[in-house]
Amino acid sequence: MTAPAHASAFAAAAGTGGILLWVVLPYVALAVFVLGHIWRYRYDKFGWTTRSSQLYENRLLRIGSPLFHFGILVVLLGHIGGLVIPKSWTDAVGISEHTYHIGAVVLGTIAGVATLGGLAILIYRRRTVGPVFSATTRNDKAMYLSLTVTIALGLAATVAANAVGGGYDYRETVSPWFRSIFYVQPDPDLMAGAPILFQLHTISALLLFAAWPFTRLVHMLTAPVGYLTRPYIVYRSRDTRLGARPPRRGWERAGS
Ligand code: HEM
């Protein structure tokens, strides 16, 4: 059987390495992300948790956790704006490239620094608070490393592109490549020409997505979303009607 003409055109332009990185890797990562979550839900429903460590330490957690989570929420919204919404749409509503770029850089840098700062506090806490360190598995350590590398590379790509020269218009390359994956018409050439920091950031993000379902990060896909505002651990008194009175000796009547 002969390969279709467009497949050999791919190979000529992006090279085999380009196809592996910008066609095969994203689909494998996406498939593992989706199937992995289904598998985890079916076989480890009760392990679908953050494994909160709030009981062990609260002071650092109360600073690091909101800083990280609100930071990453803004980063996520920024990625939806930059990767999912085509440039032609923002042009059509009168947002010039310059205005978009300034907004994205300022907001993205603040959010990126907040996320990385929050993560640094959370990792410092994990390492220095004894019981929290004891509750940290190898899986957690690998997850923290992968998360830190991805966020640091994203921030480095943004800062480097703007510190040296007038910024990089990733909405001409990375963004259409990202959408091409979901249209099932992958265009590896678009990524092959992007600056190295953008490429490394994307590769590390794809690897993070593939590992996601097997880590504590599954808590991101948890309903209800009240998660954002509720306490990390829900405390309940022993008996709602009687309050937290000390337990009596012996048997108690059921329903009393
Ligand atoms: C395939 C997935 C991803 C792609 C294609 C992608 C692409 C990009 C691009 C093009 C930028 C530059 C934005 C700018 O200069 O304004 C960026 C920045 C950034 N990315 Fe990603 N990204 C991905 C996933 C992720 C993930 C999973 C995380 C975090 C866990 C992340 C964290 C960041 C951070 C912190 C920045 C710095 C600027 C900001 O706050 O937006 N990215 N990313």
Topology:
Layout: H1 5-43, H2 59-84, H3 87-92, H4 97-128, H5 130-134, H6 138-163, H7 174-182, H8 188-192, H9 196-211
Helix pairs in contact: 1-9, 2-4, 4-6, 6-9
This protein binds protoporphyrin IX containing FE (HEM).
Protoporphyrin IX containing FE is lined by residues 75, 78-79, 82-83, 104-105, 108, 111-112, 115, 147, 150-151, 154-155, 157-158, 170, 174, 178, 198, 201-202, 205-206, 208.
The gross shape turns out to be elongated
Model regions low in confidence, pLDDT < 50 over at least 5 residues: 1-9
CATH A-level architecture: Up-down Bundle
What proportion strand? under 5%
From the N-terminal CA to the C-terminal CA, the straight-line distance is 76 Å
Strand tally: 0
The largest sheet is: none
Give every kind of bound small molecule, once each. Answer: protoporphyrin IX containing FE
SS class: mainly alpha
As an assembly, this protein is single chain
What Rg, in angstroms, do the CA atoms define?
23 Å
- Order of helices and strands, N to C? HHHHHHHHH
Taking all residues together, what is the mean pLDDT? 86
Can you count the helices?
9
Per the CATH scheme, the topology name is Fumarate Reductase Cytochrome B subunit
CATH evolutionary superfamily: Transmembrane di-heme cytochromes, Chain C
CATH first level: Mainly Alpha
Overall number of domains: 1
Subcellular location: Cell membrane
Function: Does not seem to have nitrate reductase activity.
Main location: membrane
InterPro entries: Heme-iron_electron_transfer, NarG-like_domain, NarG-like_sf, Nitrate_red_gam
